[in-house]
Amino acid sequence: LVSERPDRLLPTILSRTQEVSVPRITPEVLEAEARRRGVSDPQQAHNMARLAGGDVLELGHLVAGENDALRKEYFDLFCSLMRLSYNDKHLELVSWAEEVAHLSREQQRAFLRHAARLLRESYMLHAGLADISYLWGAEADFCGKFAPFIGNENVEFLLDEIERAMRQITQNGNPTIVFTHFALSVSKQIRRK
């Protein structure tokens, strides 16, 4: 039995198992693996290893560039959401929600995970922790400019909204309604400084 969330297993199942925790692979090992797979730029290998989050399969996807188009699409959706929220463009936010609603459910969940990661990274930049940031390229540029708008007063609320939307999508909620509510809730929290 393999589980990433053993806390959600029934006690009757757990009582019949012996737990063996398998830790994530360290970034140093993943960095060496990225170089072995042909990533010649040391900074890029370092960033890929950190972004893989201890998962050698994810590192393989990053090195191969398999999900680059989807990652760019999710990043563009995130940027669009935050810009529309900042400018109080509520009608455009409804159109944004309809666009996201046309993605598959798995893509919607992947977008929400991506948005949560970018929010956390922006918060770390805001807190002055850029040296442990997992961002580079266009993500680093955008989040560097966006970071002043993510602080103690709104980061928890925004992450809670992402988790709520994730739950509702997982439970087959209507994606147009879920993402419209999500977008309007986010717009209330992005304040001009």
Verbal overview:
The chain is an all-alpha fold and 193 residues long. 66% of the residues lie in helices and 0% in strands. It has ten helices and no strands. It is globular, with a radius of gyration of 18 Å. The mean pLDDT is 87.
Blueprint (SSEs and pairs):
Layout: H1 11-14, H2 27-36, H3 42-52, H4 56-64, H5 68-86, H6 90-101, H7 105-126, H8 137-146, H9 155-170, H10 175-189
Descriptive key words:
193 residues, mainly alpha
Beta-strand share of residues: under 5%
Q: Ends: how far apart?
A: 50 Å
The profile of the biggest β sheet is: none
The whole-number mean of residue pLDDT values reads 87
Q: What can be said about this structure in brief?
A:
This protein is mainly α.
